[in-house]
Specification:
The complex is a heterotrimer of chains A (about 290), B (about 260) and C (about 270).
Chain A: H1 2-42, H2 57-65, H3 76-111, H4 113-126, H5 135-142, E1 146-147, E2 150-151, H6 154-178, H7 183-191, H8 196-234, H9 240-248, H10 255-283
Antiparallel strand pairs in A: 1-2
Helix pairs in contact in A: 2-10, 3-4, 3-6, 3-8, 3-10, 4-6, 5-6, 6-8, 8-9, 8-10, 9-10
Chain B: H1 2-29, H2 39-48, H3 50-84, H4 86-98, H5 108-114, H6 121-144, H7 148-156, H8 161-194, H9 205-214, H10 218-246
Helix pairs in contact in B: 2-10, 3-4, 3-6, 3-8, 3-10, 5-6, 6-8, 8-10, 9-10
Chain C: E1 4-15, E2 23-34, E3 38-42, H1 49-56, E4 64-69, H2 74-79, E5 83-86, H3 98-108, H4 113-126, H5 142-153, E6 160-164, H6 172-189, E7 192-197, H7 200-206, E8 209-214, E9 219-225, H8 239-253, H9 266-269
Helix pairs in contact in C: 3-4, 3-5, 7-8
Classes of the chains: A mainly alpha (about 290), B mainly alpha (about 260), C alpha/beta (about 270).
């Protein structure tokens, strides 16, 4: 118990050190940004460095404080924050559905070789094709579906896309994990006359964690990227993706706005990665460091 | 031979069943193309517009290839820098880890502002940034995760750091590089396609899918999606082929 | 002095000196290895035998004490490729053929291509792997891989071989074959050998002297001289062999008379 808390403690400490370096990295990026602007004012660079194309860091900050539209009292940052949270919630919903379906499929594929042979090639191939290209079409279909009193809207379609993208990497990782138990361990379970269900809970699930964790990370990333891109490609209302598109059209009037929205999208991604990192810390608390990927 | 046949028929059978069910659903339910076009309609649209399809696919594929090359070169060079200099490594590694879930394509409007939006340049650059991270992370791992005993061997042979890089680290990193490339190549196609949604030239798959859908030309939109799938698969398969040719030892258990 | 292959005097190695996780891996260790001599280092885990080997090889510096290898400092010996080293893992490079693996030390020593190739083939013939020159390491069995590693360690025709449990991962039958092969090769080339092992019979069978070490702090406790004459099929079953095995075992248990201040100096045993 003591050693367990100390490993978690030391991992948390290393995390803090990394965070410090990451903040240093952000500082370096800001300095580079401003440095490039200064350089651009002296010599001709192959790209635009004017205040409109590359606003000063402080202009972006003050732009975030200004009202979203003239006369309104909601500042830009607040609109962006709400859109970011909304996007994160949709992505999270998609992630949960994707994980549930992916796990289920992995269990089925592990138990029945026919499904593994039939489905796995598609699961792998689908990770290599730009399924996100389907987003506008799925939203198009979704807008015309209604199940009883329940109206299937844009939000549901976008969550569906997120779930769809999250599900593939998870099912592949989970299947590899469920097959990761060694033959000796499986024989041991047989020698105990364990039922398949017992073997699943006592052996296959715990043994799958080193494979499951990276798969969860990829899935979470896929859900977030899928949600934002779906919002971009379909103009999904309320989300950060739509906001980026809208604000990009307003660069002449308020060049800082689009930057605030882009930063919002970046924060959504970082938050999602952070949440999965916490999940990782919890799932791998009993594992030796070397087995972690 | 028999095992190969056994490995091939289940996916083919399932694919055939899936397409049949799709066709049957559309025909029996009499679904309108705007809801779901039949596979046969998608196929005929694809064939009758073949040259346009290829041209559009080629535009996006070119963006993807240019971005992939640029991002790969950058990723390899910076991974080598990170392996040599710890300050750079400490700055880059947490950024590379944190950025995994960031929708990098959302940065496209910024590049559209900085570079000529009417050119291919912002799209290539955003693709390069997307490609950069998986390449950087994997090549860095390959350069640093060298078995200790091999490092000791190199030291016992009094090899210079430069020689260790050439003889040991770079060959060791090759399989890792391909792991990264297998992730990056399909991502390049996705990035090149999505970057087209932010305005600019209306030539690529992303632009055409969006405009076909907006003009209710659904058969055509789906046909473009098929082209996108073909391009994505082609990128992946070419990467696999390159891997087989250049790293025949990859996937083998390391010699004990 | 110049006839000694290895000369170590009062060597200390303290890891994390001054910190609260300080470990004394070597405590006042002295050892001489004569030219052409075969010396084994044996002892439980943590006794410092691998550390001593790494100090001799200049893979790590000693905290205190002096070491010379073939009459020069370990650093110079390493730079001049005067010793060859083999590890528990064969540590072959998967992307090179067997022959190119053997060529590696020659490449780093700046040999030209044709000479390199000829020498590598000669060495592969010595370990009876000439037919596998163009194979990849992963196509070979563990014993064959270790033979390649030994051929590689002999490539620059070094005066000294430093071996860190090279047969530790092999099965007993392969292991005995490899031991015979190593004895044959070291005899034919006149190479001195410092050999780290966990196995008492292995140490006895191979060595002129067995240096027994003990942990916490790592130090030399006994030196057992072994005189079995020419090794052959019957050696492993001879009474003299068993007597030496017993002597080493007793020493490991701490029941024999320990060595004095001088450590494993040649003078005390011969």
């Amino acid at each position: 118990m003591a050693s367990r808390t100390s490993t978690v403690g030391s991992r948390a400490k290393r995390g803090l050190v990394s965070l410090g370096w990451a903040l240093g990295g952000v500082l370096v990026a800001i300095l580079l940004w401003e440095g490039v602007k200064v350089l651009g004012s002296i010599i001709t660079l192959p790209f635009e460095t004017s205040d409109q194309a590359m606003p000063h860091v402080w202009s972006i900050v003050s732009g975030a404080m200004q009202p979203e539209v003239r006369g309104s009292d909601t500042p830009v940052w607040q609109t962006v924050l709400i859109a970011a949270i909304y996007t994160l919630v949709i992505a999270f919903g998609g992630f949960l559905i994707g994980v549930a379906v992916g796990l289920l499929l992995a269990i089925v594929m592990q138990r029945f070789a026919f499904f593994e042979r039939g489905l796995l090639p598609f699961v792998i191939a689908s990770q290599t094709v730009p399924l996100i290209a389907l987003a506008p079409l799925i939203v198009g279909i979704g807008n015309r579906i209604s199940i009883g009193p329940f109206e299937w809207g844009q939000t549901q379609s976008i969550m569906f896309i997120a779930a769809y993208l999250a599900f593939f990497p998870l099912s592949v990782g989970a299947l590899r994990g469920l097959q990761a138990a060694t033959p000796t361990q499986v024989e041991l379970m047989r020698s105990y006359a364990a039922t398949p269900r017992q073997a699943l809970w006592k052996l296959r699930f715990p043994a799958s964690i080193p494979y499951l964790v990276p798969a969860l990370k990829v899935s979470a990333a896929a859900a977030v990227v899928g949600t934002v891109v779906a919002q971009i490609s379909t103009g999904g209302r309320g989300g950060i993706g739509r906001l980026i598109i809208e604000y990009a059209r307003e660069t002449t009037a308020q060049p800082a706005k689009v930057y605030v929205a882009v930063i919002g999208a970046v924060i959504v991604g970082l938050l999602a990665a952070g949440l999965v990192a916490l999940l990782d810390l919890y799932l791998t608390r009993n594992l030796p460091k070397e087995t972690l990927t | 031979m028999k095992s190969k046949v056994n490995a091939i028929w289940p996916p083919i059978l399932l694919a055939a069943l899936f397409l049949l069910a799709w066709q049957a659903l559309v025909v029996i339910q009499d679904l309108k193309p705007y809801l779901l076009p039949a596979p046969s309609l998608i196929f005929t649209t694809f064939i009758t517009n073949l040259s346009l399809m290829l041209e559009t696919g080629l535009y996006t594929a070119t963006t993807a290839v240019l971005g992939l090359l640029l991002g790969t070169v950058l990723g390899i060079v910076l991974a080598m820098v990170a392996q040599r200099f710890f300050v750079f490594r400490n700055l880059m590694i947490p950024v590379a880890a944190g950025i995994a879930a960031v929708p990098i394509v959302a940065l496209t409007p910024i590049l559209n502002n900085m570079f000529d939006i009417t050119s291919r340049t912002p799209r290539v650059l955003i693709t390069a940034i997307v490609v950069f991270f998986p390449i950087f992370v994997n090549v860095y791992r390959g350069l640093t995760e060298v078995p200790n005993v091999q490092l000791e061997l190199m030291r016992s042979l009094s090899a210079t750091p430069r020689t260790v890089t050439r003889v040991l680290r770079i060959p060791n990193a090759l399989p890792f590089f391909f792991t990264g490339l297998k992730v990056a190549a399909p991502l390049a196609v996705i990035a090149a396609l999505v970057a087209e949604y932010f305005g600019g030239p209306q030539e690529g798959l992303g632009s055409k899918i969006a405009s076909s859908a907006a003009n209710t030309a659904y058969g055509r939109a789906w046909a473009y999606v098929v082209v996108a799938i073909i391009v994505g698969l082609a990128f992946y398969l070419i990467t696999l082929l390159l891997e087989r040719v250049t790293t025949p030892w990859a996937g083998r258990s390391r010699s004990a | 002095m110049s006839t000694l292959a290895v000369h170590a005097e009062g060597v200390w190695k303290i890891f994390n000196e001054g910190a609260n996780n300080e470990v004394t891996a070597l405590s006042d260790v002295s050892i001489d290895v004569g030219k052409g001599e075969f010396v084994s280092l044996i002892g439980p885990s943590g006794c410092g035998k691998s550390t001593l080997l790494r100090v001799i090889a200049d893979l790590i510096p000693p905290t205190r004490g002096s070491v010379s290898v073939a009459g020069v400092t370990p650093h110079e010996a390493r730079e001049k490729h005067q010793y060859g080293m083999a590890f528990q893992q064969a540590a072959l490079l998967d992307w090179r053929t067997v022959r190119r693996n053997v060529e590696l030390p020659l490449e780093l020593a700046g040999w030209d291509k044709d000479k390199r190739k000829a020498r590598a083939l000669e060495l592969l013939e010595m370990v009876q792997l000439q037919d596998f020159a163009d194979h990849r390491p992963w196509e070979l069995s563990g014993g064959m891989q270790q033979r390649v590693a030994i051929a590689r360690s002999l490539a620059t025709d070094p005066e000294i071989l430093l071996m860190d449990e090279p047969f530790g991962a092999l099965d007993e039958m392969t292991r005995e074959r490899m031991q015979n092969e190593l004895l044959r090769i070291s005899k034919a080339t006149g190479t001195s050998v410092v050999f780290v092992t966990h196995s008492i019979p292995e140490a006895v069978y191979l060595s002129n002297r067995v240096v027994v070490m003990s942990p916490r702090p790592g130090r030399i406790t006994h030196v057992v001289a072994v005189d079995l004459g020419e090794r052959n099929e019957d050696t492993r079953e001879s009474d003299a062999f068993y007597d030496s095995v017993t002597a080493v075992r007793e020493a490991l248990r701490g029941r024999a008379t320990p060595v004095g201040e001088g450590g494993a100096r040649l003078a005390e045993t011969s």
